[in-house]
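ok so i was messing around last nite and threw this chain in just to see what happens. nothing serious, just curious
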Amino acid sequence: MFDQLKKIAPQLQGSWERYANLYHRLEVPAKTILLHEGDVSKKAYYIEKGCLRAWFNNKGKDVTFQFFFEQEGVSSIESFRKGIPSPITLESIEPCVLHWIHKKDYNEVMKELNTIPEVREQMAALMLNRQINYMSHFMSFIRDTPKERYLNLLKEKPHIVKRIPQHYIASYLGITSVSLSRIRNAINK
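result:
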């Protein structure tokens, strides 16, 4: 779990076991809600195996906002960091093996890791990449047709199409499952 950090901060060699002990292993079946929209997030997750989705309720309809896979960390960032109600729900799509850390423990680890410039740069790069991903997804709703959004998904993130049920992909693309079926049929002709 700490492989990448071990490479950039070898000076913390003696701390890895202590950090690892702050994480708790959790196995959950598919369709398990880890955080409800409106609750305050007190846990951050690391995905060892499986897939999670972040979604929100829009007038009674769930809208998938993002997918998270193996070797990724996930939380409702604004809720976790600021102690405010979460704008999203976190739910497993597949059976998952997760490792979670409580906010107070996470803050202690981050206080120590933030003293190392290489770690700070790595964390900033990770946050920037996630922000760029969100902006790109948002811009595609303004710029691209549903077919173009689907073709971009196939090209840029084919693992999503292979692993995620069609109705979640349709929600992520901002279209109905029927529309997605039509697009897929037109492409496969």
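not much to say yet. The domain at 3-143 is CATH 2.60.120.10 (Jelly Rolls).
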